[in-house]
């Protein structure tokens, strides 16, 4: 199973060499088997990337993320027709029942708020509004008609980062969260496309200019994992070293169904569960338990 996340963060040439990714810097080079690669992040504006390499990476379903001059993720490469029954899968997606989509969104929001509660408890945040968040979690209607998601987020962020924190402000905490969200979103996007679905057609998010509506439906429960890392590691600055560290978050471990899973494997399984629910092939959803901890290192 592929598992490595590689960051190309220096001026170099990256090419294909005998089913390996060859990284050349001056007279030195390094080869990495494509079968080892899970995610490749190109994060230097003078990196040269060859078309044969990009093609082979996409054929191997490797997650490819492109960053701008500030090392912020700005886009992903997505292959066409990764699924052998792509039209059949797309037809199912187009015809997902509205009632089923609303019911799943309710479950996703419940999991998101529960994750927020568990992060506050895990980090032992003083005077955390646990009872209020539990009330919100337990009073969600289908499709979250009363916007319990938004109401919980406001008090959750205030408890986690302080009463003066404003989501969207140009500060280190917001930059770090957005960066981490994009890394996780890129992996969810890869999972969706590899299953023959399109990311534009969501179950709740319906932005006409948003090419990743379904991604941002499915990401919601996972955001709290990023939040926890940011709360522990970020204060006044979000450095290049910390960007490299947060990239490894796909390899952290979380607790699902009495087992520890790497986050990338958990995403795969939860995306499958969401799709199965929408296709009426299963009513069984997966829920992770952050109260057991989040293992950001190989502990």
UniProtKB/TrEMBL annotation:
<dbReference type="GO" id="GO:0051607">
    <property type="term" value="P:defense response to virus"/>
</dbReference>
<keyword id="KW-0238">DNA-binding</keyword>
<dbReference type="GO" id="GO:0016787">
    <property type="term" value="F:hydrolase activity"/>
</dbReference>
<keyword id="KW-0460">Magnesium</keyword>
<keyword id="KW-0255">Endonuclease</keyword>
<keyword id="KW-0464">Manganese</keyword>
<dbReference type="Pfam" id="PF01867">
    <property type="entry name" value="Cas_Cas1"/>
</dbReference>
<dbReference type="InterPro" id="IPR019855">
    <property type="entry name" value="CRISPR-assoc_Cas1_NMENI"/>
</dbReference>
<protein>
    <recommendedName>
        <fullName>CRISPR-associated endonuclease Cas1</fullName>
        <ecNumber>3.1.-.-</ecNumber>
    </recommendedName>
</protein>
<keyword id="KW-0540">Nuclease</keyword>
<dbReference type="GO" id="GO:0006096">
    <property type="term" value="P:glycolytic process"/>
</dbReference>
<feature type="binding site">
    <location>
        <position position="205"/>
    </location>
    <ligand>
        <name>Mn(2+)</name>
    </ligand>
</feature>
<dbReference type="InterPro" id="IPR042211">
    <property type="entry name" value="CRISPR-assoc_Cas1_N"/>
</dbReference>
<comment type="subunit">
    <text>Homodimer, forms a heterotetramer with a Cas2 homodimer.</text>
</comment>
<comment type="similarity">
    <text>Belongs to the CRISPR-associated endonuclease Cas1 family.</text>
</comment>
<keyword id="KW-0378">Hydrolase</keyword>
<dbReference type="GO" id="GO:0003677">
    <property type="term" value="F:DNA binding"/>
</dbReference>
<dbReference type="GO" id="GO:0046872">
    <property type="term" value="F:metal ion binding"/>
</dbReference>
<dbReference type="GO" id="GO:0043571">
    <property type="term" value="P:maintenance of CRISPR repeat elements"/>
</dbReference>
<dbReference type="GO" id="GO:0004520">
    <property type="term" value="F:DNA endonuclease activity"/>
</dbReference>
<dbReference type="InterPro" id="IPR050646">
    <property type="entry name" value="Cas1"/>
</dbReference>
<dbReference type="InterPro" id="IPR036043">
    <property type="entry name" value="Phosphoglycerate_kinase_sf"/>
</dbReference>
<keyword id="KW-0051">Antiviral defense</keyword>
<dbReference type="GO" id="GO:0004618">
    <property type="term" value="F:phosphoglycerate kinase activity"/>
</dbReference>
<feature type="binding site">
    <location>
        <position position="220"/>
    </location>
    <ligand>
        <name>Mn(2+)</name>
    </ligand>
</feature>
<dbReference type="InterPro" id="IPR042206">
    <property type="entry name" value="CRISPR-assoc_Cas1_C"/>
</dbReference>
<feature type="binding site">
    <location>
        <position position="149"/>
    </location>
    <ligand>
        <name>Mn(2+)</name>
    </ligand>
</feature>
<dbReference type="InterPro" id="IPR002729">
    <property type="entry name" value="CRISPR-assoc_Cas1"/>
</dbReference>
<keyword id="KW-0479">Metal-binding</keyword>
<comment type="function">
    <text>CRISPR (clustered regularly interspaced short palindromic repeat), is an adaptive immune system that provides protection against mobile genetic elements (viruses, transposable elements and conjugative plasmids). CRISPR clusters contain spacers, sequences complementary to antecedent mobile elements, and target invading nucleic acids. CRISPR clusters are transcribed and processed into CRISPR RNA (crRNA). Acts as a dsDNA endonuclease. Involved in the integration of spacer DNA into the CRISPR cassette.</text>
</comment>
């Amino acid at each position: 199973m592929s598992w490595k996340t590689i960051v190309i963060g220096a001026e170099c040439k990256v090419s294909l060499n005998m089913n390996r990714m060859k990284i050349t810097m001056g007279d030195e080079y390094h080869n990495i088997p494509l079968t080892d690669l899970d995610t490749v992040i190109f994060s230097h504006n003078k990196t040269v990337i060859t078309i044969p390499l990009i093609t082979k990476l996409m054929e191997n379903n490797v997650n490819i993320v492109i960053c701008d001059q500030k090392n912020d993720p700005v886009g992903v490469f997505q292959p066409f027709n990764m699924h052998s029954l792509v039209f059949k899968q797309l037809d199912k997606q187009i015809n997902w029942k509205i009632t089923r989509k609303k019911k799943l969104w309710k479950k996703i929001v419940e999991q998101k708020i529960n994750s927020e509660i568990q992060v506050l408890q895990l980090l032992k945040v003083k005077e955390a509004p646990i009872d209020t968040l539990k009330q919100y979690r337990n009073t969600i209607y289908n499709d979250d008609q009363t916007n319990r998601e938004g109401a919980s987020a406001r008090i959750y962020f205030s408890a986690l980062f302080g009463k003066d924190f404003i989501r969207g402000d140009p500060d280190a905490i917001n930059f770090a969260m957005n960066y981490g969200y994009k890394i996780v979103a890129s992996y969810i996007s890869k999972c969706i496309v590899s299953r023959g679905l399109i990311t534009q057609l969501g179950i709740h998010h319906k932005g006409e200019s948003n090419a990743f509506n379904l991604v941002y439906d499915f990401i919601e429960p996972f955001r709290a994992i990023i939040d926890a890392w940011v709360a522990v590691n970020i204060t006044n600055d979000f450095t290049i070293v910390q960007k490299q560290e947060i990239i490894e978050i796909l390899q952290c471990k979380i607790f699902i169904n009495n087992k520890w899973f790497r986050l990338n494997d958990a995403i795969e399984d939860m995306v499958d569960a969401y799709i199965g629910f929408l296709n009426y092939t299963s009513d069984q959803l997966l829920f992770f338990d952050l109260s057991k901890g989040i293992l950001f290192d190989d502990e």
